[in-house]
Amino acid sequence: MSIILAYVPGPAGEAALQFAIKEASLHQTKLIVVNSSRGGALGDPQLASAEQLSAMRDLAEQAGVAIEIEQPIRNEDPDFEVLEAAQRHDAVLIVVATRRRSTVGKFILGSAAQRIIMEADIPVVTVKPART
User: Fold this and answer.
1) Which residue, of 5, 41, 65, 105, has the greatest Cβ tally within 10 A?
2) CA 25, 93, 15, 128 torsion-angle sign
3) How far is CA 115 from CA 60, 80, 83, 101, in A?
């Protein structure tokens, strides 16, 4: 049993990380972080840096949460990677970050979060960053 976090660096991703760690601690389960590059690009800004990955591990450790981080680079879309990880790890919950995007941006790029919500067989929680 595990909780899956679809992680993208930035304020929304950090808010989702905090939420996922709290949920994993509450349910005493492992947290699986999936940080995937769209199309397999190593230089993709959606990939977390080594420093960000280390900080994630530290936060989870401080909360007493076991964490596993996956950064698949396989030419698959992030939504596919998250849904596949949920099946592989017998997940009970998926946590995704949401952020504001224009209507045109949603139309052109689609929304990985929306596809995860629509296709997941388990509950999906969306987390927004706090307004500043």
Assistant:
1) 5
2) negative
3) 27, 9, 10, 15
